[in-house]
Write a structure and sequence with these properties.
The chain has about 600 residues and is of the alpha/beta class. The protein contains 19 helices and 25 strands. It is about 35% helix and about 25% strand. Strand 13 and strand 14 form a beta hairpin. The chain is globular and about 80 Å long. The structure holds 5-amino-5-deoxy-1-O-phosphono-D-mannitol.
């Protein structure tokens, strides 16, 4: 989704801005631009914009000799107005230049007012009203900082903005409300960005801005003013991101790298229990013991893949810990009238921790009086983590591919740990069972590494899938959400229409779709529902459907006409959903490759969905 980088230095900042944009490319975008206050030409604004990749923007800025010591840059993911050069940021109004992430909801009325004052709009974006509004205050005599503050006071919606003026080369001004923004502190130079990864190459010292903050960023200092207008200090964090963690290394795609990193990502996530004899609430924060003892139900809020992780967890939390659990799509929950129950633990699950719908759903839950919150998240210091009472950081490392892979399996690892902790507190986990589960968890990275060996067989399936228009994914019980995740992965990157069903539902409708052109994937672990599932698979075979089954060793399912079986190397008991995810990720990856798709950046999608 949209990305912001800003810089002030005693050197040309264009390479810093471009490098920052490159590091934000993974978030998804459809145009990019940069504006700097020209170092040589009496401080005039120079701007280049492109609907191509950032590399193209880089070539354009070199060709046009764009350089300066103060500047802002942006990657845009279109919301208001098609992807085009005129809609790309930065937008300019009389020497003021602005980049913006988020959506301004009252842009129509502001546009009408600004038009009546003589402003001419050159783009279809909501952002251009910000540029004109800042300019209107600035030309009336306000400082740039005050002009930005007066502007933000009029904006309704979510925004992170960075603003420069060609008449004031000493600073840039940034502000945020509802969209992430941070400052990077350097030696005699300072920066701003929407994501710490954009600044890896220049600084590790990061200051996260709070909602309502507005900051003046100068060469030698930053000054932050909060929503009330008071000057405030915000803590300086040392970013743990390393440049190598976001490099491709020997892999061809980030998704491929991230699929193969899963044994390590899960091992890192479970590191704190690998040598432990038991689990304890402290894994989730200092207050977790008290909070977990006071709750009597759980509500999981999430989107996309993270929602699927929540759906798996419901089976664990109710089946193992015996605690009532509901799982809701965040974008639905936030607008639904629900019956609040104060002793519910609200769990948000998110890779990025910045997903706008999940954040809003958490705020909504709090506004209803739900007392306790826990965030399971891959990004320390993200908005969700900061907004929650308790946290568990999955340690997957940066996930760059838009299709979520290692974030999902590490979320599941975190959720099984939570299940164990709650089960123990509720007297439902014997010491023997705890020891057995900890043993299974220690074996999980090895089991994951073993499953990755099914890749050549999956590749053969993928060649066939790539020629089809539709696919059906079936699972039962806890593997139904894994079928959902398999279908989401396939449609997201291969653009093959895929649906997931609880296999028992097949005969209630979707069976009508099945014929010889419809490949059907079934997840068939050796569990209590296996015989039921086998009956469902017979229903598919009887209609000529081509079955592709991921089966455990002792399921007695073997290859036959119209039945293709891949044997899973390990059976992992209740951890089985984690293992069955891997072949489905590989299937989507190879089907997308076969179709010649750009797997890391599927069309129309963004990595971090920071708008509603
Ligand atoms: O960062 P989050 O986990 O909150 O993101 C939620 C979804 O946008 C995300 O999982 C999305 O569905 C993935 N692209 C799926 O692969």
């Amino acid at each position: 989704m949209c990305g912001i980088v800003g810089a002030i230095a005693k050197r040309n900042v264009v390479p810093i801005l471009i490098e920052g944009l490159k590091r934000l490319e993974y978030r998804g975008y459809d145009s990019a631009g940069v504006a700097v206050v020209d170092g040589k030409d009496n401080g005039k604004l120079q701007r280049v914009r492109s609907t191509g990749r950032v590399a193209e923007l880089e070539k354009l800025s070199q060709a046009e000799h764009v350089s300066g010591e103060l500047g802002i840059a942006h990657t845009r993911w279109a919301t208001h107005g098609v992807p085009s050069e005129k809609n790309a940021h930065p937008h300019i109004s009389g020497g003021i230049s602005v980049v913006h992430n988020g959506i301004i909801e009252n842009h129509d009325e502001l546009r009408a007012r600004l038009r009546s004052q003589g402003y001419v709009f050159l783009s279809d974006t909501d952002t251009e009203v910000i540029a004109h509004l800042v300019h209107s205050f600035y030309k009336g005599g306000a400082t740039l900082f005050d002009a930005v503050r007066r502007t933000t006071a009029e904006l309704i919606g979510a925004y992170a903005i960075a603003v420069v003026s060609e008449n004031d080369r000493t600073h840039l001004v940034v502000a945020r409300h509802g969209a992430p923004l941070l400052l990077g502190l350097g030696e005699g130079e300072n920066f701003a960005a929407s994501d710490a990864s954009a600044l890896i190459q220049v600084t590790q010292k990061i200051v996260y801005l709070e909602d309502g903050d507005c900051a003046e960023v100068k060469l030698d200092r930053v000054t932050i003013v909060n929503a009330k207008g008071d000057v405030v200090e915000r803590p300086v964090h040392i970013s743990q991101l390393s440049a190598s963690a976001v490099e491709l290394g020997n892999y061809t795609h980030y998704m491929q790298k991230e699929i193969f990193e899963q044994p390590m990502a899960v091992a890192n996530t479970l590191e704190m229990v690998t040598s432990a004899q038991s689990v304890s609430p402290q894994l989730f924060g200092a207050e977790a013991g008290r909070i977990f003892s006071d709750i009597d139900s759980v509500l999981i809020l999430a989107c996309g893949t993270s929602y699927n992780a929540g759906m798996v967890a419901r089976y664990w939390l109710e089946g193992v810990a015996g605690i009532p659990c509901s799982v809701e799509i965040a974008s639905e929950y936030r607008y639904r009238e629900s019956v609040p129950h104060p002793r519910t633990l609200v769990i948000t699950v998110s890779q990025s921790g910045e997903t706008a719908d999940t954040l809003a759903a958490l705020q909504y839950a709090k506004s209803l009086g739900l007392l306790y919150s826990l965030s399971i998240c891959n990004v320390p210091e993200s908005a969700l983590v900061r907004a929650s009472d308790l946290r568990f950081l999955t340690r997957a490392g940066p996930e760059i591919g838009v299709a979520s892979t290692k974030a999902f399996t590490t979320q599941l690892a975190a959720l099984i740990l939570l299940t164990m902790v709650l089960a123990k507190l509720r007297g439902r986990l014997t010491t023997e069972r705890e020891t057995e589960l900890l043993h299974q968890m220690r074996h999980l990275p090895t089991a994951l590494a073993n499953v990755l060996h099914v890749e050549p067989q999956i590749k053969m399936w993928a060649e066939k899938f790539a020629t089809r228009h539709h696919a059906l994914f079936l699972g039962r019980g806890i593997h139904w959400p894994i079928a959902m995740e398999g279908a989401l992965k396939l449609k997201e990157i291969s653009y093959i229409h895929a649906e997931a069903y609880a296999a028992g539902e097949l005969k209630h409708g979707p069976l009508a779709l099945v014929d010889k052109h419809m490949p059907v994937v079934a997840i068939a672990p050796k569990d209590a529902l296996l015989e039921k599932l086998k009956s469902n698979l017979q229903e598919v075979r009887a209609r000529g459907g081509e079955l592709h089954v991921l089966a455990d060793q002792d399921t007695k399912l073997t290859d036959a006409e119209g039945l293709h079986v891949i044997r899973m190397p390990d059976h992992a008991g209740i951890l089985s959903p984690i293992l069955h995810t891997i072949p489905l990720q590989l299937l989507a990856y190879h089907a997308a490759l076969e179709r010649g798709n750009y797997v890391d950046k599927p069309r129309n999608l963004a990595k971090s969905v920071t708008v509603e």
